[in-house]
Amino acid sequence: MKDRLFAQISIMFKPGNSFADYLFITVTFLPLLPAIFILFQKNFGKSPLDILLIICLVNFIRDLPIHLYMLNWEGQNILNNVCYPIELILFARLFRTTLLKPLREGLTVILVAFLSSMLTWLSIKGWENDTPVLEIIQYSILIGTILPSLPFLVRSKGLDIFRSSLFWIAGGTLFYLFILLLLKWANPGGQLNAEDKIFLSLAALIRYSLYMLAALPGRDSALTE
Question: Does pTM surpass 0.90?
Fold first, then answer.
């Protein structure tokens, strides 16, 4: 079974490996921390933090069942195939407004074409099927959406770039995606070994820590200037 972007950290707990056990349990609930922090700071409803909150909740809902063995693999694949497109749309909504108009239009065309193809494929093959090729395409679209936004953020914010919520969200997401793709490239079979999963869990820890920084008081709340 292929590892998937936000069921990517799942692993069977091994007796005697207490560090890994506690790490995986911690990572399971990490998406809740930025969400709770945003609500505690009364930042919900302020873009981009409202979108970040929804992304974190989607990630938590998708990843929790596999750690608690609530679903079989077919059920987990169905949940993944529902949550991943939602996550992609949310990230596109988050960063598309920072792009130049030609890039925004191109992103819209690519996103519509990809989602249409994905929904058609899943409707024909079944939502319980794993989709590793579509997974890689989604990673590429996410990276292609976020990377071009960084020059705009740097130019618009200047020395205040570290006060931008989008900067920390972009940094955390890109860091995690690059680590994930690197590990998958190092494992052509698609299966991550126990050490890789620990490394990926640490990357997730850094990712959600940066999301926490994005939600700190005093951050810029607007998507664009």
Answer: no
